[in-house]
Amino acid sequence: MKWLGKKAMAVLLLALAIMLAATFYPYAQEWVSSMLPQGKYDRATTVISHEMEKAGELTAVKYTDQELMESSTKALFLGEVQNVKAPYTYEIGLGIHLNEVKLTASENGITVAVPDVEMLYDSFRVTGSPEVKDFFHPLNETKYQQMLDAQAAECRAKYLDDQQCLSDAWTAACESIERLISQWTGEEIPLKFTSVTAS
Question: Is the predicted pLDDT of residue 1 greater than 80, yes or no?
Fold first, then answer.
């Protein structure tokens, strides 16, 4: 009889253990996964992705040029019939859209795939009175605007066609992302940066 009581108690305890395990399994699984590196970095990617969605754009570098535009027109036999000079300021911001950044967690940290940088904004404005000399060839408003548009396009191409400039801006974007991730998570997470086009 004593043996039967022990057997019944063992079955009862086993049933209770199974019930407790089934009840607390989802919580225990989350707790265990958060203690492991993979789980820890999975949670961090969720936080980071949410913050990136809120942030929107990241301007990695800004450039400002203050120059003098000069355009001249020559005519056969007469030589230079028009000369226009105008001081200008050109500004451009290169960066990325943070929602295009791809995050992949692993047991060793997070791989951050960063898109190529692009022009986020630019502006061209004349900062002083233009100096116009137009002999026999008066400068009209349309022609003047064409000169300004051509100068703005030249300024833009100076940066967007320069691969070293774009590469430097991409590196600056990665450095900014690293600082932001540290700020958002409050910890130093091992990060590996790669290009979206390369991944």
Answer: no
Gap between the terminal Cα atoms of the chain = 70
Q: What confidence tens digit (pLDDT) does each residue in 22-75 have?
A: 565 555 445 444 444 556 788 888 889 989 888 889 999 999 999 998 877 776
Q: Give the largest CA-CA distance in the chain.
A: 128
CA distance 163 to 170: 10
Strands (E), the chain: 57-75, 79-97, 102-106, 109-114, 118-126, 131-134, 191-195
Residue 62 CB: number of other CB atoms within 10 A?
Answer: 13
Residues in the chain: 199
61 C-beta neighbours (distance < 10 Å), count: 19
- Whether residue 95 contacts residue 57, with contact meaning beta carbons closer than 8 Å, is answered with yes
Q: How many CB atoms lie within 10 A of CB 48?
A: 23
**In 3-state terms, what secondary structure has residue 145?**
helix
- What is the domain partition of the chain in residue ranges? 1-35, 37-195
What Å distances lie between residue 69 and 54, 83, 92, 143, 153, CA to CA?
40, 10, 17, 14, 12
Query: Taken in order 176, 178, 181, 183, is the CA torsion positive or negative?
Result: negative
